[in-house]
Amino acid sequence: MQQLLVGLRYYATGSFQLTSGDLGGVSKATVCRCIQRVSNGIASLGQNIIKFPGTAEERRKVIEEFYNIGLFPGVVGTIDCTHIPIKSPGGENAEHYRNRKGFFSLNVQTISDANLMIRNIVACWAGSVHDSTIFHNSSIRGMFERQEIDRCHLLGDNGYKLSKFVLTPFLNPLTNAERNYNRCHIVTRNTVERQYGVWKRRFPALKFGLRTKLQTSLSIIVATAVLHNICIKSRDDMPHEDETLVEFFQRNRLALNRNPNVGQVEGGDGDVPALQYRRRFAQTHFA
Description:
Keywords: Hydrolase, Metal-binding, Nuclease, Nucleus. By secondary structure, the chain is of the alpha/beta class.
């Protein structure tokens, strides 16, 4: 039980110092071992707790819930990535983890449903990798490509390449239908932004940075996603930001080693068939 408490306290603070002090001076080495064991154990539950809607009936329900938010039809999930700060992993590949904002991170992709549940997570990519690359190599994209998931789509921002199963906003809407499409797209896609906000407020370690070994950091991310979903299912109260923690990390800020010269490749606006599909979709549903 104490190991579980150590792990949960670390997720809630992101600080070895606070975790050790709160639990009666447990050594840093012991705290690290507890965090690793607890995180591995909770993360192993992911395949049962973090599940993409698998049946037609499950997808129908999700689509209906999204439609009730923003009047955008056929949405089975909203997709985006977020950067989780980490310490430098060291080694010859360390700079690969430095993102375009100049700090070390893991770029984590999630798909949210209308209730802010995490329906899919990819937590293995370095901070320099672009969002569109992560999706291109994901199992979810393969399922859409093989039409194992059909007659529905994801909503993403313009960091993603437009396709028939990932709909992005019009960069320059020309008609009322395209403008209406964009308005409904923004309202609906906002769910994934809200999901990230709730997830990080619930587990501030994700916001303030993980000072653990790389493999443990990966497990922590998945473990907190599992716990986030359990909280949503249990109708747990939405968390507020802990001002004490904010002040603590302002005084003891992670060394981010900023490098403003790191660039990023854009996702692109899709090929001609995808552009034509989006135009027809907007005209059909938003004219």
